[in-house]
Each structure stands twice: as C-alpha cells, then as structure tokens.
From TrEMBL:
The keyword ATP-binding does not apply. This is TonB-dependent receptor. Residues 1-28 form the signal peptide. Its main location: membrane. It is a multi-pass membrane protein. Residues 59-151 form the TonB-dependent receptor plug domain. It is found in: Cell outer membrane.
Length: 735
C-alpha cells in the first residue's frame, strides 16, 4: 500500500509535465486497456446480450466519463431528461440550458448518439423512457466535436431489442390547477436481419411563477421611491416527440443504422403585473400574452463495414430542420407592443472514419466531420399599431456556418496497466451574417491536440488514474451572430432613452470562438461490492472570452437618441479550476461499521469546488458568469425487506455568490436548493408505480443586479422568483 501511495503521488506530480511534452497529440481510446493477447483485431459490429453495470461501462471507458443507465433514469419517475440531469454530479440545468462544472451555456456539448444535438432540440421535452443511458465525458476526444470546454453529455437513445417488445409509460404531473398527463408508447420488433424501435411520446405541462421586483425610482411628484411590482406568470403547452431507429445487419461485418428524431410543440406564457404605485421612473414590465410553436426534424444514416480483421470503415450523413414562431403582445393601454416572427434553422452533416490496426498495440483512425448550417429570421414589431424601426420591420436576417473538421488518432495499449490515445483535430469555421445594413464574413481555425492516459493500479482496473490534456473551443451561437437590432420592450420608441438595466439587443457577426487549453487528472476506485469513489481536478485557460456587454451607444441613423445596448463581445482571457469528488455504493460497503452488508440501502454523495477569474475585470468576484463557488449533493434509496417498495431522496445545494459581469455591473445570486423524494411499488417484473415530488420546500430564485457609475449609475433590480413543488405519478408497464 505504501508503494502504491508513493507511485500515485509521483504520477500526480509528473502528469502535467508529461502532458505538456506531448501536447501535439490527441488521446481518444475506445476501449479498456485490456490484457495481453497474441493478436488483436477490430471488433465486429453486432448487438450483444447481457447488460453491463454503469460502473463497468465507466471503468472500461478509454477517457474519464460518468455513465448513468436505467436505474438513474427511472428512479424518480421523471417525465423529462432535464430533471434527471440536474441531480447528476457536476451538472445543473439553468433556464433549460445544461451546464457542467459551473460553466454557462455553450461550454457543454450535448450529443445524441454521439452526434451534436440539432438546433431547437429541447432536453426538457425528451422522455427518459426513450433513452438507454447518459454518458458524461470530461475531456474532448478527436473523433467528436471539440466544442466541449466543460465536457460533453451524450444521450444514448434506446436500440431495438432482440425480441418483440411493447412498453407503455404513463404519468400524471401536478404543479397547479389540475394534473396534466404524459406518456410514451414504445413498440420494438425484429424481422430477420432487421430490427427497429418506434417510440412515441406526448406531454402537457402547466406551471405558475411569481415574481417580485424592486427598483429605485421616482413617483409622480419626482420624489425618490422604491418602485415595486408583483407578477404572476402562467406557462402551459403540449407537444409530441419520437426517436425511431432501425438496424439492418447485412452480415457479421456490415450494418446500416437509420435514426430519426422529431419534436413538435405549442406553448403559451401569460403574465399579469400589479405595480405598488404610480411611478414616473423606472419603466416596469407590462402585462403580456405570448404564444408560439417549435418544431424539429432530424434524420441520420450510418453505414459500417469491417473490411477485414484489421480494418473498419464508417460513413455518416444527416439532415435537420428546426422552426420556431412567436406572437408576443404587451398589454399597454397607451402604446401596446406586438412582435410577430419566426426563425428556421437548416443543416446538413457528413462524416467518415477509417480505422486500421497496426501491429498488436496500435489502432490508428483518420476521419472527417463536415457541417453546413443556415438560420433565417424574420420579425415584425408594431407599437400602437405603427411599425417599429421601419427599415428592419419584416426584413429577413440570415446567418450561415460552414464547419470542416479532420482528425487523426492513435489508440495505444502500452501494456496491461497503461494505455494511451494520441491525436490531433483541426476545425475551420466560416460564418456569414447578412440582412439590412449587415453583410459580414468571418472565419477562424482551431487546432486541437489531445492526450489521454490511463494507468491501472491493479490488473483488474478497479483502481486507476486518468489524465487528459486537451484543446477545445466554444463557438458563438448562431443567434449571437445575427446583426438585427431589437429595442427593449419597456422602451419601444426609438426616440426615448432607455436605462442600463433595460438595454436593447444586437448580435455581433465578428465574434471569434473561445479557445480553451485544459488539464484533467482523476483518481477512480471501484469497490468489489459495486461502490465507486472518484477524485478529480481540472483546469482551463480560456482565450477570447465571450460575454454580453452593455454600453451607451451614440445616436445613429437607426436610433436617433443615445441608447443602452447589450451585445456579445470577446472581452478577455479567463481561467477556471475545480476539484470534483463522487462517492456511491451500498451502505454496508461504504460504512461497514454502521450498516449490515445485507442492508438494501444505497448512498450517493458529490462535492464540486470551483474557482475562476476573468482577467480584464477587477476583483473580487470576477468569476465566470453563473459559476458558483461550490455545489454538493446527497442521495439515498432503500428497498424494504419483504416488501416490493423502494423509497429514496436527493438533495442538491448551491450557495449564494456574486459575479462581476462588467466594470459597472454585478449580479448577486441567492442560494438554491433542490430536494426530491420518491417511492416505487413493484407489482410484478413488468409493472411498477412511482410517486415522486420534485423541489420540496422550494426556495425562491432571488437575484440582485447592480449598476454603478456612468449615466445609468446607482441603479439596481431586485428580483425574487418563486417556484413550486412538482408531483409525479408514473406507471410503467411491459405489455
């Protein structure tokens, strides 16, 4: 044990040096280190029986990843995958966007079966019944997009089973008023060499949020007051989605896979406000009625051919289209504002990969990844029935992205205890933004060397150290590149000046991608009884950091008075680091002095500590946007002896913190807490009933935004948004 401890300490000290000397390589191994064998060959492509545990899949992975299968997906009877993700270590869901390691939207790559999720894809509208497992990868790999500064979340959809199967999952979800139904019916069949699965989900939702706002202002007599407002927002809607999949096994060496995905939904959001008095300033929100639709279609095809025992070739192609429309109306008796519009995203993808076994220890792969995307947006806004900004009203704006990537990697089994994967990936991204007064072309290249090392401290791989040195990037969202100017709805006239907390918005076609160089080191221990402990460290250096910056713009031909405008900009460099721990397993194995080994109690705990610094902003609190100082979670589930009943609970907590967003603006975020409980009764191997409650004893989502200095100086907005408990009753049946 002493020798192992010394060896681990030496490795942790030496890995950064080793990583730097090999920084021109990428590591993306696809299998475990394995044991010695007289001859290796590329695996056949086939569907196999037997289910490996989540820990087995995690332990055998070539890069550091977390794997969550059906146990985690089904535990709380969730009706959407976003509710599952928010309980996982190191992951949060903020305003529908998935975040890892406390990093904001866009730093996390979301994949569907290994391919980037299409525009318009909504995790909160995907039923866990359509998913086989979730894989969370901490470091970029050469054969996947390098747009994963924080990491990647790969949602693996269910594959067709080997036998006929018909599953039904129904649920009632209560938040306010009355329960809303949802359900998924999955039909799977196998006909000779062809197998397919056809899931169809339908869902409805309704919820209510309460918002209390305070801002300094003046009353009708110009006396200083604190303006108050209370708002009730009712959100409701419905939708459907499906992810059909077909596998055709042409031979033992050749397969074809077809995967489709569609979502369609309708939403409404109605807000009613009550002001605490009559105020001359500031202008507060009006009551509003808003509704819209979204639609997403995607089709992918993959052909895989094992040419011989040492060569394999894969081809992929895909097409996708996402549409959205909206009709937003403010109920202002003097100057009602109405905005009608929509956008369409279309895209094509094509990729290929050739793998060659070289000797007994190397598998060399080369491939390409191409993507073409175009977004078109139109919007018509009227104020009191008169067109707003006539030169832009109803005119189409367009943005295009052309991405071309090529990679080379070598998976190297050094010996039974060591494995490595070396590689490089280069991506060139060209963007075009066009519209009224906008015609901008921009291009950038990202060269990504990547290195992954695995060291098994015992031959069975139950104790190991992983290390990665990666180069990744965050590409601007295509909507950020749109050059359309949009006036703030509280100040809809172009002839009046707004304030810094109610800025106009405009895109920035000249945005460059953020570049990140990262180091990851992790120690993992897999216990004999199924328990697992991990301790990891990460660091990222980020260049060309993108942040929304609010400035006071001078009058122009479009807007004749000075206006505060918020636009995304490359402002600085930044660094972020963190320590992540995770522990889970049976109570008798983790705490043998307190629990009997036969006790059917499983425990889970995780703690993540984050630090970051934006270099051009003065401290303190010049952290990356919305990154908390730490977050932690605790959970358990217990199966009663002699009863088909299992109960459990999960608690996720994040403390309050302050973020300096710009030189003059800061954001205070209050603490958050998510407490979920569940109970499951198993009637038979084919039927079970779950009752769960999410967000028990909810805390308000409270924020304080402060502006100091300049013409908009001394202003603030205090907003306290109330949340509600969600109750779910879910029935699972295998028919």
């Amino acid at each position: 044990m002493k020798t192992h401890a010394i060896a681990r300490a030496c490795l942790l000290a030496c890995l950064p040096v080793a990583g730097l000397t090999a920084s021109s390589f990428v590591l993306a191994q696809e299998g475990p280190p394995g044991t010695e064998a007289p001859q290796r060959r590329l695996d056949r492509v086939e569907i196999t029986g037997g289910r490996q545990s989540d820990n087995d899949l995690r332990r055998k992975a070539s890069v550091a990843k977390q794997v969550y299968g059906r146990d985690e997906l089904d535990r709380y009877g969730d009706t959407n995958i976003a509710d599952v993700l928010k309980r996982l270590p190191g992951i949060s869901v903020v305003d529908g966007a998935v975040r890892m390691r406390g990093l904001g939207n866009g730093y996390t790559l979301v994949l569907i079966n290994g391919d980037p999720a299409p525009p318009g894809f909504k995790l909160d509208q995907l039923d866990p019944a359509q998913i086989e497992r979730i894989e969370v990868t901490k470091g970029a790999t050469a054969d996947q997009s390098a747009q994963s500064v924080a990491g990647a979340i790969n949602v693996i959809l269910k594959e067709p089973p080997r036998v006929s199967q018909l599953d039904l999952r129904t649920a009632l979800v209560y938040n306010i008023e009355s329960p809303r139904p949802s359900g998924t019916l999955t039909f799977s069949e196998r006909l000779g060499p062809v197998s397919f699965t056809l899931p169809l989900s339908g869902f409805m939702w309704v919820n209510k949020q309460e918002l209390d706002v305070r801002r300094p202002g003046t009353d009708a007599a110009n006396a200083p007051v604190v303006a108050t407002q209370h708002a009730d927002t009712r959100n409701h809607g419905h939708g459907i989605n499906s992810a059909p999949r077909l596998n055709w096994k042409i031979s033992d060496d050749e397969t074809v896979t077809l995967q489709g995905f569609l979502q369609k939904g309708w939403w409404n959001s109605d807000t009613r406000v009550i002001n605490g008095g009559n105020y001359k300033s500031p202008k507060l929100d009006d009551s509003s009625d808003n509704d819209g639709t979204w639609q997403m279609l995607r089709a992918n095809a993959q052909w895989s051919k094992r040419l011989n025992d040492s060569q394999k070739f894969e081809l992929k192609a895909g097409a996708q289209e996402a549409k959205a429309s909206w009709d937003n109306r403010t109920l202002n008796a003097v100057a009602p504002v109405r905005s009608l519009g929509g956008n369409t995203d279309r895209g094509l993808t094509q990729a290929g990969k050739f793998s060659q076994l070289v000797g007994d220890d190397h598998t060399v792969s080369a491939g390409w990844d191409l993507e073409w995307r175009r977004r078109d947006e139109t919007r018509t806004t009227t104020v009191g029935g008169v067109g707003q900004l006539p030169s832009l009203n109803g005119e189409a704006f367009r943005a295009r992205i052309d991405r071309r990537a090529f990679y080379l990697q070598d998976e190297w089994e050094i010996n039974p205890l060591w494995s490595a994967s070396l590689g490089v990936r280069t991506e060139r991204v060209s963007t075009t933004s066009s519209g009224v007064g906008v015609d901008v072309r921009n291009s950038s290249s990202v060269f990504s060397p990547l290195l992954h090392l695995n060291w098994k401290l015992d031959p069975k791989g139950r104790e190991m150290v992983r290390a990665s040195l990666t180069r990744s990037y965050k590409s601007p969202d295509i909507s950020q590149l749109m050059g359309r100017y949009a006036l703030n709805s509280n100040y809809p006239s172009a002839n009046e000046q707004n304030d810094a907390l109610s800025p106009d918005r405009v895109g920035n076609p000249l945005l460059k991608p953020e570049l990140a160089t990262g180091l990851d080191i992790a120690y993992e221990r897999y216990m004999a009884g199924g328990g697992m402990f991990s301790l990891g460290f990460f660091h990222r250096n980020i260049d060309n950091l993108i942040r929304n910056v609010t400035t006071l713009d001078a009058p122009s031909a479009l807007v004749p008075v000075p206006r505060w405008v918020m636009r995304p900009s490359n402002i600085s460099r930044a660094t972020t680091s963190g320590i992540e721990t995770e522990l889970k397993g049976r109570a008798g194995e983790l705490l043998p002095s307190m629990f009997d080994p036969k006790t059917a109690l499983n425990l889970r705990a995780a703690l993540s500590v984050y630090r970051s610094r934006v270099k051009t902003l003065p401290g303190p609190d010049n952290r990356l946007d919305q990154q908390p100082p730490w977050s932690g979670s605790l959970g358990f589930d217990y199966r009663f002896t002699g009863m088909p009943l299992t109960v459990g609970s999960s608690l996720v907590y994040t403390p309050g913190y302050t973020t300096r967003q710009t030189d003059i603006q800061s954001l205070d975020q209050w603490r958050t807490r998510q407490l979920d409980v569940f109970a499951q009764w198993v009637f038979s191997p084919k039927t079970s009933l779950r009752l769960s409650a999410n967000n028990l004893a909810p805390l308000g989502n409270t924020r304080l935004t402060t502006v100091s200095g300049g013409p908009g100086g001394g202003d603030y907005t205090y907003a306290d948004r109330g949340t509600r408990t969600l109750v779910i009753l879910a029935l699972d049946m295998k028919l």
